[in-house]
Design goal:
It is built from eleven helices and eight strands. By secondary structure, the chain is an alpha/beta fold. The chain has a single domain, classed as TIM Barrel (Alpha-Beta Barrel), CATH 3.20.20. The radius of gyration is 19 Å and the shape is globular.
Length: about 325
């Protein structure tokens, strides 16, 4: 795999400083039942990096001593971590809102037959990856048969109330382009998803989030192999909007890796660009004072243009209106 960090480190991206912390995003490991072409985590079935119970304890301790009200669980497939459900139970008991970044097909894995019921019982906000409503596009990016399994996963979520009016169970879908281009306008694409998934499969959901592909890890390596890396970076830089800077996720989110080390965002985590605080080269969550984060400089590199191009892109979807 081609490393893209040497191509990204030298940057003219504007300096950023952190605002008050709102979301703790925790990567529970690199293990996944899928192996997608665009994956910036380089996750897959053979990965063995998994957060252990002691580190999950550090996560819960941080939630208790901070004002963070949202725990955002990601991976890999976070549900495949053996401690996933206990972490959700404990965080739910603390009154923390929980997001599960779900690939949908994990709902069909052996031992996960009751996963939809578990998520519903703990009012978990499901953010589900579905890069297109068309079978050929999903299977081309994620593997043969993934589209059909994803639709079945959505049906299971709908069956327990997710996406249904007045259920209080939020189901958001995530779109990312299948190639080196920017996502289309989020609002218009959401209307297409709602129409096509409803008419074809009877699927309902709350919102669609559009994300740009980051020029790192598996997707970045593919761009380098195809000689498309420079053109994609030119596209991102040419579409940069300074107005998106105020809303980028790294200002209010803290990313934690499976070992318990902290980063300004998930993308920096995958590039191994740790959060810099008080001159320390690397900081564990258990050693972090939440109050020390506000005003701290964010570590930036050229990949940050992926978050400010066009409508902008973050874990919460587009940053600007259509």
């Amino acid at each position: 795999m081609h490393s893209t960090l040497p191509l990204l480190r030298e940057t003219d991206f504007p300096p950023l400083r952190r605002a008050s912390l709102q979301t703790l995003q925790v990567n529970l490991g690199r293990r996944c039942n899928q192996q997608c072409l665009h994956c910036h985590v380089d996750a897959g079935p053979r990965r063995r990096e998994v957060m252990d119970a002691a580190t999950m304890g550090e996560v819960l301790d941080f939630l208790r001593r901070s004002r963070v009200r949202t725990l955002d669980l990601t991976g890999g497939a976070p549900e495949l971590n053996p401690g996933f459900r206990e972490l959700v139970r404990e965080a739910w008991g603390l009154g923390v809102g929980i997001i599960d970044r779900c690939n949908l097909t994990v709902l069909l894995e052996p031992g996960q037959e009751d996963l939809a019921d578990f998520l519903a019982a703990h009012r978990v906000h499901v953010v589900a990856s579905l890069p297109c409503y068309l079978q050929e596009n999903v299977d081309g990016q994620r593997g043969k048969g993934v589209h059909a399994r994803s639709i079945e996963g959505l049906r299971r979520l709908n069956a327990v109330g997710y996406g249904q009016a007045d259920s209080g169970l939020t189901l958001d879908l995530v779109y990312n382009p299948t190639g080196p281009r920017l996502p289309p306008p989020q609002c218009a694409l959401e209307a297409d998803y709602r129409r096509e998934l409803g008419q074809r499969f009877g699927i309902v959901f709350n919102s669609l989030l559009t994300l740009a592909n980051m020029p790192i890890k598996r997707f970045g390596s593919m761009l380098v192999s195809r000689g498309e890396f420079a053109a994609y970076m030119a596209l991102l830089k040419g579409a940069h909007r300074a107005t998106n800077l105020a809303a980028v996720m790294c200002r209010t989110l803290l990313s934690v890796d499976w070992r318990g080390f902290v980063y300004d965002c998930d993308f920096n985590q995958m590039l191994d660009l740790p959060l810099v605080l008080d001159g320390r080269p690397r900081t564990r969550l258990q050693d972090l004072d939440p109050a020390a984060l506000e005003g701290n400089a964010v570590v930036v590199a050229d990949h940050c243009y992926g978050c400010t191009a066009g409508q902008g892109s973050s874990c919460g979807g587009a940053l600007a209106a259509d």
